[in-house]
Amino acid sequence: MNVPALRSHNAALVLDLLRGAGEAGISRLELAERTGLTPQAVSKITARLRAEGLAAEAGHRASTGGKPRTVLRLEPSAAHAVGVHLDRDELTALLTDLAGTTVALRRRPVDLGAGTGPVLDAVTEEVRALLREGGEERAVLGAGVAMPGPLDHRAGLPGRVTGFPEWAGHPVREELARRLGLPVVLDKDTNAAALGLALRPGAPASFAYVHLGTGLGAGLVLGGAPLRGDRTGAGELGHQTVQLDGPPCGCGGRGCLEVLCLAAVARGELAGAARILGAGAANLVRLLDIDQVLLGGRVVLAAPEAFADGVREVLAGLGLTAPVGVVAERDAVAEGAAWLTLAPVFGK
Asked: β-strand 292-296 against 207-212: which pairing, if any?
């Protein structure tokens, strides 16, 4: 999709305010006040956005003087994005509109150990099937792909994924872009989820998204933006050593949070797993002074109260006051992956 309006920084500011206003919309005068742009500049930008189908009138609002103000809103159906969560044993692919609302979803089992070829075949098949659903021509901005780390998000290359070393250095982004004929962004699963959460209305300025599923990791948000690090290495929570000479971990270390926590889950000791998770969360709170801890992932969602209560208990016992919440959406990672493509449209 080649929309000239999307290439303007000022247009991105306006689009983000339209997104935040939702169905209620926002007037041109309010847009000018909140962006610092002149009313004339806002009028030109909104005229272009309307011509491109990205914005539409949402009625009128009473004015303190003169004629009622025309209210504008985002047109979500103007563009779409694909989000893919490539987990160790499951593939989730979804299509969202411009506002990030899921309009189609597909899911199937995969085995990351089956090799890059068969797994990327599955991703290609599911994304193509998504794009065919509805039988209508959709403008698609691109695809965001989220998978376990470590990986290099700038180069689009996975690293030595724990348990699946054959993925290290494979040109996932380049290969999928060629197969799909779409721009592709690759990032860690936890970073993608954290990005999607950070862009929700009312999101805290700093938080940690702690994901416990087939592995354990964290997505970190500081100052409203994801913290990836130069090598996408930030948030590797699962591979903190918390027990010297503990059981070996697939990463090559011993006594990692991930191996201890998943072993407790496998034994059915959820209270113990929650305490281990709480120890990791406490380390993040003390290290980064974050505002909130958010828990997610399939293991957490299978017993959300047990994990939330256990993590809260550990934090409280250490005198840490950061609130603990649970991200209830099963597909938070795939939704966040779509935002890897959508976020730049809104200047994020």
From this structure: parallel
Nearest to 85 by CA among 140, 129, 132, 148: 148
pLDDT band, residue 133 (cuts 50/70/90): confident
- The SS3 assignment for 7 reads helix
Q: Which strand (E) or helix (H) includes residue 239?
A: none
What pLDDT is recorded for position 59?
Answer: 82
**Which CB contacts under 8 angstroms, 24+ apart, belong to 122-128?**
122/91, 123/84, 123/86, 123/91, 123/93, 123/176, 124/176, 124/179, 124/180, 126/84, 126/91, 126/93, 127/82, 127/84, 127/93, 127/180, 128/180
Q: Is the peptide bond before 201 cis (omega within 30 degrees of 0)?
A: no
Q: What is the pLDDT of residue 342?
A: 97
Q: Assess whether pLDDT exceeds 80 at residue 6.
A: no
Split at pLDDT 50, 70, 90, the class of 64 is low
Q: CA Rg, the chain, in Å? A: 22
Q: Is the pTM of this model over 0.85?
A: yes
Confidence at 216, pLDDT banded by 50, 70, 90: very high
* Length of the chain counted residue by residue: 348
DSSP sequence for 284-297: HHHHH--SEEEEES
In angstroms, the CA 253 to CA 276 distance is 17
Q: Are 145 and 185 in contact (CB under 8 A)?
A: yes
200-237 burial code (b ≥16 CB/10 A, e <16)? eeebbebbbbbbbbbbbbbbbbbeeebbbeeebebbbb
Is the separation of the CB atoms in 261 and 277 below 8 Å? yes
